[in-house]
């Protein structure tokens, strides 16, 4: 058996870090040969939210001092986000737009939030009633005008980001003008007397759409895979940003198409079977080639 090692030097330099090429010193003839994934190390560094996925936007609606509602469209920078980081970015936007108050303890008060609800295996959206005047002991450092009617911000989730958070496309919270909204009887929506509205996602959140990687190999014919070039599937067992060390307990052999080759190419795909950008190029991938004449010791 022969070992092939692919690393950063084999990457095709297109900025995507998802295509590797191994060039043989001389042309090699394969006949009844097979290839298997033997192991790899790489960092969990592919994004879950980015412009190319069309899942990086949402909006909120705010009523100004004249009673006029305005929609603020939010574009999330490409990145690897958990729900906590999405909530932090929402708070950052509120700060930028001046849509917050400071309570008597000096704490910033925001009027919408994203939370993980582990008991329900869901993402919870809470919105809070913005008042018509400044509460006693509070401050308004941004000088935001108070509206003529109290309201809850409307959070709207367009297609794609709704899947990240587990809601239907174009889901929108209620504005609850003057705290008059009566929510329907539902296990997914509730209201407190103080005007707080809470929503629970109706399907399992898909925080990382590409929760696994597929290694696609040129020159193989895996008749039971779609596409037929799939060599191996990698499911990270570490937290985001950490080093993945993968070593299968057994080799899974795939037939190399008979012929003469001067190179092999490996492409890293996402779950939608399209090449996925890997942000950290530091990687080592080990492949094993077995010829028909090789002895296999079990």
* Count of the separate structural domains: 2
**Inertia-based shape:** elongated
SSE-based structural type? mainly beta
Which consecutive residue ranges, at least 5 long each, have pLDDT under 50?
Answer: none
Q: What is the number of E strands?
A: 19
Radius of gyration based on Cα positions: 26 Å
Q: Share of helix among residues?
A: under 10%
The tally of helices reads 2
Spell out the helices and strands N to C. Answer: EEEEEHEEEEEHEEEEEEEEE
Question: Summed up, what is this model?
Answer:
With 298 residues, the protein is mainly β. The protein has helices at residues 83-97, 161-165, and strands at 2-7, 19-30, 34-43, 57-63, 69-75, 101-102, 108-109, 112-117, 122-127, 154-157, 171-172, 189-191, 197-200, 213-217, 230-234, 243-246, 254-255, 259-269, 283-290. Helix content is 7%, strand content 36%.
Describe what this molecule looks like in 3D:
The protein is mainly beta and 298 residues long. It folds into two domains: 2-46 and 210-290, Jelly Rolls (Sandwich); 51-200, no CATH class. The protein is 7% helix and 36% strand. It is built from two helices and 19 strands. The chain has helices at 83-97, 161-165; strands spanning 2-7, 19-30, 34-43, 57-63, 69-75, 101-102, 108-109, 112-117, 122-127, 154-157, 171-172, 189-191, 197-200, 213-217, 230-234, 243-246, 254-255, 259-269, 283-290. Strands 1, 3, 16, 17 and 19 form a five-stranded antiparallel β-sheet that branches. The longest helix has 15 residues, at 83-97. The two termini are 14 Å apart.
């Amino acid at each position: 058996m022969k070992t092939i090692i692919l690393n950063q030097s084999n990457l095709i330099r297109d900025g995507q870090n998802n295509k590797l090429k191994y060039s043989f010193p001389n042309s090699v003839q394969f006949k009844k040969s097979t290839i298997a994934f033997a192991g790899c190390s790489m960092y969990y560094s592919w994004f879950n939210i980015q412009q190319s996925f069309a899942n990086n936007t949402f909006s909120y609606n705010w009523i100004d001092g004249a009673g006029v509602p305005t929609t603020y469209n939010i574009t999330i920078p490409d990145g690897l986000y958990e729900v906590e980081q999405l909530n932090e970015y929402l708070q950052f936007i509120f700060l930028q737009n001046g849509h917050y108050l400071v309570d008597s303890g000096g704490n910033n008060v925001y009027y919408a939030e994203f939370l993980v609800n582990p008991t329900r295996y869901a993402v919870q959206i809470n919105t809070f009633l913005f008042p018509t005047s400044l509460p006693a002991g509070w401050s308004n450092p941004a000088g935001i005008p108070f509206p003529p009617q109290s309201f809850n911000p409307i959070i709207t989730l367009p297609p794609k980001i709704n899947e990240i958070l587990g809601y239907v496309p174009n889901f929108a919270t209620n504005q609850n003008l003057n705290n008059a909204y009566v929510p329907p009887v539902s296990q997914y929506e509730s209201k407190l007397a103080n005007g707080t509205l809470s929503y629970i996602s109706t399907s399992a959140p898909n925080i990382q759409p590409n929760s696994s990687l597929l290694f696609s190999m040129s020159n193989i014919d895996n008749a039971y895979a779609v596409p037929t070039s799939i060599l191996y599937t990698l499911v990270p067992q570490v937290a985001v940003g950490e080093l993945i060390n993968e070593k299968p307990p057994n080799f899974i052999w795939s037939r190399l198409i008979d012929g003469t080759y001067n190179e092999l190419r490996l492409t890293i795909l996402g779950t939608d079977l399209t090449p996925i950008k890997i942000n950290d190029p530091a990687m080592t991938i080990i492949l094993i080639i077995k010829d028909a004449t090789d002895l296999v010791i079990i």
